[in-house]
Amino acid sequence: MMEKRVLMLHTGGTLGMSGRRPTPLKPDTYTHALLSHVPELRQLGHVEVRILCNLDSSNMTPARWMDVGTTLAEEHAKFDGFVVIHGTDTMAYTASACAFLLDGLRKPVIFTGSQRPLGETRSDARSNLVGAVELATKDIPEVGVFFDSQLFRGVRTVKSSVWEYDAFASPNCGPLAEVGVDLVIHDRVRRPSSPFKLAGGFESRVVCLELHPGFHPAILDSLVQNGVRGLVLRAYGSGNVPVVADLSLVPAIERAVKAGIAVVIVSQVQRGGVDLSLYESGAHARSAGAVDGGDLTTSAAVVKLMYALQGGGVEHVRALFGQDLRGEGGVPAGRVG
Ligand code: ASP
Questions:
Q1: Pocket residue to mutate for ligand 1, from 55, 58, 157, most atoms within 8 A of Cβ
Q2: Using alpha carbons only, what angle is made at residue 84 by residues 16 and 163, rounded to the nearest 5 degrees?
Q3: 121 belongs to the catalytic site
Q4: Which of 26, 27, 164, 223 is a Cys-bridge partner for 54, taking CB atoms 3.0 to 4.6 Å apart?
């Protein structure tokens, strides 16, 4: 059998950092020698390592997502699979961005990283890298996040632990694959239905705000003055917002939408999602023009909103949020309206 070809793109994160308390961890250069640190990767296929950038992932930007997505698209035909080494803090955002960019993906794109640097004796980096490279040689044409022993769909993933090795969860969608004694690939892996292409880009004038009791509606009006084009509002429960007296958000949502800001409502609660038809306080938000984000994670909603706004305004956003583009979920078809 032909040896599989895997491109490993390094973008940064703890995996390639050094430092020991009290010195803070920061990006180091030894990822250049990654293959000599984990020689067993060579047994899984021909692995080529490329350093795209070396950042703490809090410094990632939509422009950097484009660099990652463009590189993956340019190399799509030349490799059997891809591993992206990335910091855990914003991994769910970059993985979501790549999922939206890589329409009709034919190859696995596996994001991974670690909670402790590769250079430390008791690190999760080695097993995450080995699992990610093995998954990148399989027939999994999706952008996934592999950590500990599970591969999740990138657009469904949330960072769920700062300290534990199983740092990610996928609250509303089961794993795509599990790596244990056996490597099990689940049936929910999606298959491409269109030719492969690099699709779109990102409008970065988007903000995300979380409601709390006492949240003042004037904050939404200030977004209009500041040229914001999209808002992800993390509302209560199934998408509820205050609707009473001075602190009612409904008039402010209406003003924002009329001014051309797309307002998408997601839930502060991880499991389940938004249904703006369930309570009066959600229904009023919908009548004011808010878009129902369904069970989207916050990071998937932010990235999808940036992606949608690159192609049009409020009505285009509404139309795209009524579709499940990359398995990100959202509003079940029967409830769109
Ligand atoms: N601050 C790091 C980053 O996201 C955390 C990590 O990699 O786990 O780059």
A1: 58
A2: 55
A3: no
A4: 27
